[in-house]
Amino acid sequence: MTERIQKVTMPKWGLSMKTGKVIEWFVAEGDTIAKGDDLADIETEKIAGTLESPQEGLLRRIVADTGVELPVGATLALVAPAEVSDEEIESVVAEARAQLESGELGGEDEPAVRTAEVDGRSISYVTLGADSGDDGGEPVVLVHGFGGDKNSWLFVQQPLSESHTVHALDLPGHGQSGKDVGDGSLDTLAGTVLGFLDAVGAARAHLVGHSLGGAVVAAAAARAPDRVASLTLLAPAGYGKEADVEYLRGFAAASSRRELKPLLGRLFADESQVTRQLVDDLLKYKRLDGVAEALAALVETLLDGDRQAIDTPALLAGVSVPVTVVWGSADRILPVPDGVTLHRVDAGHMLHMEAAGEVLRQLSL
Amino acid sequence: MARSISYREAINEALAQEMERDSRVVVFGEDNVGGTGAPGDIDAWGGVLGVTKGLYGKFPGRVMDTPISESAFIGAAIGAATGGLRPVAELMFIDFMGVCFDQIFNQAAKFRYMFGGNAVTPVVIRTMWGAGLRAAAQHSQSLLSVFTHIPGLKVAAPSNPYDAKGLLIASIRDDDPVIFAEHKMLYDTTGEVPEESYSIPFGEANVARDGGDVTIVAIGRMVNTALEAAAELAGSGVEAEVIDPRTTSPLDLDTILESVENTGRLVVVDESNPRCSLASDISASVAQEAFGALLAPIQLVTGPHTPVPFADSLEDLFIPDVPKIVGAVKTAVDWSK
Prior knowledge:
The complex is a heterodimer of chains A (365) and B (337). Chain A is α/β, with parallel strands linked by helices and 365 residues long.
């Protein structure tokens, strides 16, 4: 009967996550839960997020106490039909505790960070779900925004990889990729994405881009529409002229925690998402040789004076692939534009971090 | 993600990357190659604790051994810096610095000022500091405050491998003379360090731990001891913020003041002798600038006003440890007027 008991486990959000803590449970033993219900708030070293239910059924036991640090894969709760006896539930709880004490959890290898050569630049990426094989040879490529990197897809890449091969790359000037952005133009960045498709042997791909990355994938589709199966644009650059120019220029120029931290709050609807680890990681990135020059060049691509320079709808005018636009309704960096067909989610600019579940539901891959 | 390397390897990598990037960077000191005539890469000592090992093989002609004459080769480094090179001189122990005070205090530190900004002296003097190696009174001192006292000098004291690499690269690129103080008990400690080059700005403290009850400012190796103490204090419900200034000149007083304004309590941990020290300097500045925020007297945890003893048991007593820091924090937290 134990196969009728389903485990809710500690998720793996991001490549480097090893442990997490349940901060608060939103459900109680005896509740009937549905797929996508908010189960608990979980905090990792980098970020706090809400765990959504991956299954439906009757929540029989909550195993994880709040505030206890647990490895990825640890059993948090058990879901089972009412007819499963309490004894059986207890035996699964005991197994889970034994597994936790054995220390066998959390030791799994981090997915390999790989490197592709594209236009003479070293492009860093991580691929998940390469064995699923049911994506018809059309993988998903995730393209982050200005100042971001492949780790910003921490809540998205893993769930998507259950059905697709999912590549997350670092654009030139970002993450672990080469820091030379050339002229820093949208065309150069779009060329990198298309060159990356060649490097991983993908004839066509679903492109998902956030912010600057949204404009980049749109430009890639404009240049080579036959390489693109679909476009998903998350708070993309180039819709409307408004932007938080102070944020963009300030982020590019900031060199200390005191300068950077207040700016980062503007990325989120809930400013408590800005953890010390997030600030430290960004400062470490910004100190790398070449990053200041790269970001300065990209600000020029993004802005014309105090207005956005890119016109993404114009790029898409001749593109017939399916386009989905998703926006956080509390976006303070690139405000929600008027007159555009889009899905709103309850989040700030970093919607794929703050409302990953909702964003995943909007993806039409 | 990033690989983990030692403090020693981080310093070596910073030197190698800067030598690769800039042909004006040269490295010399006692046994940096390994003794005249040694083949370098294989036999080199790489300095007394092996920090420059392997550099000679990569950059022959740009890594040199010097005679045991600190006053001569530190003077040579300063002269070479004014002449257009970017020398990194290794002065084995900070304790030996006394014989080159004129070169450092009266020449290197003054050139930019006395020539009206028309001269720069981009020299880095790497040196080991701190107690704990059973090396007795002449090889164990923490003389950072002596150099911090002199305008015209910059002083870095990294507490971990990441900071060691980034601060050394920043030091080499800086146009002013830098005393780069490596704590000898940290060489084998490890941490995540990016392979790429990066520089950490001078005068920017690292908040090594967040906490709202007390601010602990600690320097060099004491940052790790303070973090251990903070972990222990958390068990009794006291959350300590641990600040690592990283550079003592310039000193990031703003970060310290901001923290004290939030916590109301300050404990400064420095293994140096206490008189005219970084601990007394930081506490005086905080008392002056944030007096209204203080809820308790500032506590100093330092070595005593004695030379570092040779007897193991006495040296252990000399160096601030977790119980002393925990005690000082409790004194501050439990204080009532």
